[in-house]
Amino acid sequence: MKNLKLPHKQLIADHIAGLPRSGIRDFFELVIGMEEVISLGVGEPDFATPWHIREATIYSLEKGHTSYTSNLGLLSLRKEICRYLRKEYQLNYIPEKECIITVGVSEALDLILRAIINPGDEIIYHEPCYVSYGPEIIMAGGKPVPLVTQEKNAFSLNPDQLAGLITSKTKAILLNFPCNPTGALLSPGQLKKIAAIAMAHDLLVITDEIYSELVYDDEIFSIASLPGMKERTIFLHGFSKAFAMTGYRIGYACGPAELIEAMMKIHQYSMLCASIIAQEAAIEALKNGAAEKEKMRRKYGERRDFIVDQLNEMGMKCLKPKGAFYVFPNISAFGLSSKEFATRLLKEKNVALVPGTAFGACGEGYVRCAYAASMENIIEAMDRIKVFLVNL
Amino acid sequence: MQDKILRLLSENARWSDQDLAKRLNISKKTVKKIIKNLEDKNIIYGYKAIVNEAVFAENEVKAIIEVRITPRRNEGYDKIAERIGKFPEVTSLYLVSGGYDLQLIVEGKNLHEIASFVSGKLALIEGVISTTTHFLLKKYKEFGKILHDSDEYEKLKVTP
Asked: Model-level pTM?
């Protein structure tokens, strides 16, 4: 008789087996089980969701609102979102057909990539970047084309470099400003140049603006609001960062009706709809969350000013991030690789940062510090890092 | 800068001048000067810790007392209020709108002490019409601090 034991590894599809493990996961496993770790490694707010939103969540459960919603999501939420985008972003979308509610921006990104990519299509994105962009493009059957952003350009996207990467296969440009992990932001002028390139080459722009409210010296400005761009832009956003709602898993995409319809097809067969509980909480966030949101933003701003001064003072050279809640200091002067630096800092001083290489190979020589941590923890972490550097 | 210092100190009065200087990127001398000025102008009245009072043997009983008074010509409520406020048992005193006039918070070693303050002193003050005493049973929140333990849960230490 044949041995029936399944060779599990061989069951895995080639394109999944070939995906690299997330660099963050490796590092995460080191941290597990360690006591007394001060973490500047967390990409989410240290605040719990504002109470009025949590309270509204409980109320919606009490009323028994526990059903499915329409595939696109509650119309009342889509209306609130479109109102919010009109007021804060000067974007005009029609709630009935140009907006879809998703399970976080992660799902929204997955949907648009799967909706547009034919095998071999190329998507240009900038690195260092959020860990999922490359793998998501691969899983959708596309070819990821990274554009390296550099410290000397404040990690902004160089238009000439972008133009140089465009081929006949290029389908879309994926942007994430304010950027995780660099904290970079593009000015309206820089966005105009990118928009001109997108129009000249007839490309779609996918813009992940999950950190857009968290800007400290600038106004909110979306590439989708530039003339002629609404028709070729998919705007991705959600509630995780500005409203401290990461665990609710609630996001959305806005864009041309036909693209939203295509995304909806995938969403309806794979996810059906986002959780109604999270959707109702999101309505409360948009209706009454402005004050708490502003309070948190101000806190992040104070922490940013502090951490940037401290890091620069101790020789971890970093730019002042314009948005999000990350700084990306250059550690190449210390003669360690990003991974060695982060690992030794964790083992010797119990401070967790994320090695820059988790965000792409070009992140070598950098580490990411999140300042979405309490001021007390940031101060303690800075003191420990100072001692660590002196003893290197 | 003054507002920033006030906000930080009202969250945590134990920030040292050094800490504040570091956080606000100004000199320690400037911090000292601003705080001194705030204290002189009575913008900062004082500093105290929020203590779990269960650890104290004394002043174990607290009461909130509602007092109705007759305001006096030319003086309004102020003279009576000032008079009541001089008793050390009274730790806070407010003039409020609604069904009564003054709200007092009173501390004592035991029920008896508060009772004798009310009947022996407060109720006898000229102009006091009536008093209603509510003994404090449990504190849930004080000075913006929620006083019961919050639940810890498994929050990740590193995420993308």
From this structure: 0.86
